[in-house]
Amino acid sequence: MTGKNDEIIKLVGGLVGLGLLLAVIQSCGTNQLVSAPFPTQPVAEEPNTTATTAVSESGVLSIRANGEDFVRTGFMSKDGWRIKFKHVYVTLSEVTAYQTDPAYDPEKSKELVANEKVNLPPTPTIDLALGDETAEPILVAETKAPAGQYNALSWKVVKPIDGPAQGYPLVLKGTATKDGQTIPFTLKFDQELAYVCGEFVGKERKGLLKAGDRADLEVTLHFDHLLGNAESPLTDDLNKGALGFAPLAALAKNGKLDVDQAALKQGLSAANYKQLIGLLPSLGHTGEGHCREILVKS
Amino acid sequence: MKPGMIVIMIGLVLAGMSEQAIAHSVLLKHQSVQALEIQANYDSGEPMKNAQVTVYAPNTQQPWLKGSTNDRGYFAFVPDRTQPGTWSVKVRSEGHGNIINIPLVATSTASIDSASDKNMATEQGTLEPVTASSAVGFTPLQKAIMATAVIWGFMGTALFFQRRQA
Fold it and tell me: CB of A23 within 8 Å of any CB in chain B?
């Protein structure tokens, strides 16, 4: 009888020990950092909209586009060319603002599910190079919208059917100068792009629209990604990924560079052309906030 | 590393002050509170050192708190327990930035039995990340007892099977 009791005691002891072992493992886990929860969201073909929002619960939502000082005042490319832009034509389409909860994270979620969705009216081609360093970002569109926190934004860059950049979603015009040589350039890209972004990340917080008030969101394009930035070390990832201007300068004829995407494909090495086109999706941001980027197939 | 891409991780920690007594009738008290700890890295794994941190309370546009990460990219703060909802923490450095949203909900006082200051918890409620594990600390003594129990348990199990075979 005593032996049987001993067996029971030992068996119970073993089970208790294993239980405590699990408890210790769990307690160790709680002392570690855990990643923030952003589960993949299911596909939402048509996010919910609030069609019956009362006027008193609405405000005005504006969308602005910003090429930053890189296009307004110029910059030095990673290979020492002083770049000044005269015009940076961009044609945006299907600009849409969203209220998402949980917040959409383009680096973790492929699909965006919105509680509220606001489509902005169509807009003509805009010139991001307008104004100086004190200029406000270009007003793209504005519309009445239900109050709330707009923490996601999507848009496309498309071929305009008319205007100064007819047929080209993105046109860069300006001058590049190095060692006393100045090359006027016109780069015309026919690659269409699409972006789905999370919340604006910048000096201020944007997108909180209160009833009867105004709020804005920003389409931000980082042109230093194409040519690099001499103010950053060459070892910086931005510069390591950027093409620089030298390969483009080599295509100049009679001191000028005026090329479309087909001419770039023909003139650049295969590696440089692939690099340049591969950089186009990385232009789109909302402030410093990243986007899910899509190269639209023609 | 992709330009501008950063990785922010969040942890839940318990922060507190130890009780001390110093001269000139200075009285010090301590309490344990739940803090949120942010870890900001570039996606290369490099910490965002001394990055600018801005904390926003739920549904607000004005910063609730400003600060900066330490040399290892860490920043910790104690959210206002009276403001449940989604807290946002923005981290920026040299043109790179990201924002993390942390849902906090009010919970019953029963869930914080381990807190040393139950009165405060009862008055103010408590907040905890919805999906983060609750952080309950163990003292070294508790851990030693648990480790001993585990070892004893293994030995008991081994002896049990050994005896049956005999």
Answer: yes
Give A-chain residues touching B146 at CB under 8 angstroms: 20, 23-24
Model confidence over A219-259: pLDDT tens digits?
A: 999 999 999 999 999 998 899 999 999 999 999 999 999 99
Q: How far apart are CA B166 and CA B155, in angstroms?
A: 16
Chain B positions touching A29 (Cβ under 8 A) are 133
Whether B156 sits inside 8 A of A14 (CB atoms) is: yes
pLDDT per residue over A40-67, tens digit each?
Answer: 232 233 333 443 444 459 999 999 999 9
Q: Does residue A28 sit at the B interface (CB-CB below 8 Å)? A: no
The nearest alpha carbon in chain A to B9 belongs to A35
Q: With a cut of 0.85, is the ipTM above it?
A: no
pTM score above 0.80: no
For residue A131, give both structure tokens. Answer: 């104004």
